[in-house]
Amino acid sequence: MPDEFGGGPENSALSELLDLSMPADTEAMAAVVDAISEALARREVPEQKRLEVALAVQEALANAVVHGCDNDPSKQVRCRVRSDAHGRILIIVTDPGPGFSPDLLSDPKRRENLYADHGRGVYLIRQLMDEVHFEHSGNEVRMWKY
To answer: Are 97 and 43 in contact (CB under 8 A)?
Structure first.
């Protein structure tokens, strides 16, 4: 039976590092990102990898707050962090929104989008993480860092 990393049973031992919920408020994001960075530092994850994960999580949380929750602090965003014995990290960010289709996003590298003040979050997440999947109609992002 495949595990959440797509491998076989020999890779299935995932440890839950964190399971956090936050109000859909951009002010709450820093505490979640800091908690993740601290948890990864305790696991002796290299600094560069921690910085890349932190930025990807910040973008995923911002998308969840703004698009998934319409900046409504009465709604909750959930962020789970898991790791395996090989040092692979899985981060799952879930919001209660209707989701979206990542295939319909504009390419931020196209000339008409270069000076836009939004629209780079998913692109950045994909550049920073090794594997990214959108689940449950797009209201859950699963990001892997190997």
So the answer is: no
Establish if 3 belongs to a structural domain: no
Residue 19 belongs to a domain: yes
Please report whether residue 41 resides in a domain: yes
Question: Whole-model pTM?
Answer: 0.82
pLDDT in tens, the chain (146 residues): 334 444 433 445 889 999 999 999 999 999 999 999 999 999 999 999 999 999 999 999 999 999 999 999 999 999 999 999 888 999 999 999 987 766 765 565 566 644 555 555 788 999 999 999 999 888 999 999 99
> HSE-up of 36 (CA within 13 Å, CB side)?
30
Domain membership of residue 111 as a residue range: 14-145
